[in-house]
């Protein structure tokens, strides 16, 4: 990457945002981050804050950009991401993904920045096609408790399309599949966090529904390496899945974590949350072809890294 690009990261104090800020700083960029600290925290960016090339403001995306800079890239990561977090704040979730995205696209238009939008596999809803390719339109409930997030992200994608086709703005949408790693918020309700917390407390692992539903978990370093390739090569193409196609059921995940931690705590079954997708696995051939990228950290190795961190 050309050194000293000016890059804005919204949600920069969150799990993914903070790893991205660190990677950008390590490559000599000038990094501007904003975050309202609703689900992120300053501890995530304590290393970044030591750098003279890191500029942080506590602010809400919906109040506009609190910097007066001509950015090369605007990376929009601000949004609650865990189902518990967005169920607790559905209106804020819709706003940051719609009004927030709209404000950022306007800002990008005026300073001619490129935009990277953190979208999600949730745009596919409870998919009827498997694995999910980018040209699958999804099966999403627009009037339910996951709708604030799923439809918020779908609207963000539609806004990006509109700005690209109206103003020629250069945008890359990435549809991120479940990502885990150090700095996940231990109490945010996502499955790996819950299981690890329960293991520490010596409690049975909470399985929602039958536990046969699947997810494909990606280690944070693999996601960051894909993002860094996009930014360095200035890739602005159609929406792209970024995930690890190693699919496993929630029961298999619980068994693997029990094995890796040497625990036998058993399972406690809980009702399945509403609209919980039954299967999720990315087709990553577009990212492989465009970026020459594929994930390199297996689920077993990634979980071990988290356990040992
Ligand atoms: P996170 O909750 O750790 O990070 C989100 C950050 O955004 C937090 O620091 C939060 O305080 C901030 N934020 C939220 N609303 C804001 C607002 N209105 N103004 C300013 N800051 C705000 O979650 P994460 O897992 O790091 O997710 C980051 C992004 O990646 C999100 O957009 C999410 O939708 C997307 N994503 C994440 C995953 C995943 O598995 N982690 C999967 C798909 C997509
Ligand atoms: N899940 C579970 N036990 C938990 C938390 C989650 O069985 O303690 C299930 C949840 O129902 C879903 C999957 O694990 O099927 C992944 O949930 P998560 O909240 O991590 O992310 P999602 O992919 O649903 O956004």
Walk me through what this model shows.
The protein has one domain (6-183, 217-244, 282-296): Rossmann fold, CATH 3.40.50.720. Helix content is 37%, strand content 17%. Strand 1, helix 1 (15-26) and strand 2 (30-35) form a beta-alpha-beta unit. The two termini are 29 Å apart. The chain has 10 helices and 13 strands. Helix 1 (15-26) crosses helix 7, helix 3 packs parallel to helix 4 and helix 3 (90-97) runs parallel beside helix 5 (147-167). The protein is an alpha/beta fold and 309 residues long. Bound molecules: nicotinamide-adenine-dinucleotide and uridine-5'-diphosphate. Uridine-5'-diphosphate binds next to helix 6 and strand 8.
Considering DSSP H and I runs of 4 or more, what fraction of the residues is helical?
25-40%
The average pLDDT value, as a whole number, equals 96
What percent strand? 15-25%
What spatial form do the alpha-carbon principal axes imply? globular
Which ligands accompany this protein? Answer: nicotinamide-adenine-dinucleotide, uridine-5'-diphosphate
Give the H and E element order.
EHEEEHHHEHEEHEEEHEEHEHH
CATH class: Alpha Beta
Q: How many beta-strand segments? A: 13
Poorly predicted ranges (pLDDT <50, ≥5 residues)? Answer: none
CATH superfamily: NAD(P)-binding Rossmann-like Domain
Q: Which strand order do you get reading across the main beta sheet?
A: 3-2-1-4-5-6-11
